[in-house]
Amino acid sequence: MLINKPNDIPSSEITDKNSYLSRRKFLERAAILVGSVAATGVVYRALNEPTGIGPPPTRGDKLTASADSHNTGFFTDEPKTPFNDVTGYNNYYEFSTDKYDVAKEAKNFDTRGWVLSVEGMVSKPRKFDLDDLKKIAPLEERVYRHRCVEAWSMVIPWLGFPIASLLKQVEPLSSAKYVRFETLMDARRMPNQSSAVLDWPYVEGLRMDEAMHPLAILSVGLYGETLLPQNGAPIRLVVPWKYGFKGCKSIVKISLVDEQPGTTWALANSYEYGFYANVNPAVDHPRWSQATERRLPTGDSRATLPFNGYAEQVAQLYAGMDLRKFF
Length: 327
Prior knowledge:
Number of helices: 9
CATH topology: Sulfite Oxidase, Chain A, domain 2
Low-confidence stretches: 1-55
CATH class: Alpha Beta
Number of strands: 12
Radius of gyration: 19 Å
Order of helices and strands: HHHHEEHEEHEEHEEEEHEEH
Helix content: 10-25%
Largest sheet: 7 strands, mixed
CATH superfamily: Oxidoreductase, molybdopterin-binding domain
CATH architecture: Alpha-Beta Complex
Shape: globular
Mean pLDDT: 86
């Protein structure tokens, strides 16, 4: 890491007042969150055996992947993270900032009558109910590595379909450059939306070519069952070469737009969280290194792979880009 002495820093690199105040606002909010990343790892390893977290949570309804799902090549041969850990240790601030409390706080979340609106720069805007979504394309099992920005990781067997399959239903206009994803806004059903920890609703975004990449999916299940509330039921975004905060959950609106959308964490603190959120071990988070990660549930340390191990498939999307600037 290059460290400049004060007299080596050009004025162009000095943080402007607005960015400073934005960061300060974020840090004030962050003070109410639970622990630091280091404490998270220590507590996790101290409280949890490799077999999982406490009693098994409620299971979802059974889902069936297509017969040729395993021929798609979207698999890692790494051991899957146990079901109890995948469903018992979750980032989902709409319910709680405590990863252990999310499952409890979300257990009564009701998804009946769910509608996903796909709109914006499309020829055929449409609303999809849950039955519609399950008919978009044959469900595939995708066993993906999942890397969180706090430096822990899992291997999760998702069930879903490519985002491209959904977007083809609405016929994007050639002028659409980005895809904006928005989570449900309902503080009655998602009680922590009453807090000021983030600006709600939760919003994420991808470039059109990222969204159309075959690795990028919308998931409706994991471990052969429908998504549980704590994992983003009934439908969520999964982009395996990006950090986990990119995985917008409980999506109610997808909009195709011609300008880069403001995304929740980038708006909360652009100094620490960029729009792209590509896993890049060469670019540290301002408060910790991203060079290694802890694989849950054991907490074993391992080197972080560029693009989370998917560089061969996606690196060409960023050819010629400065991945330190566009982080």
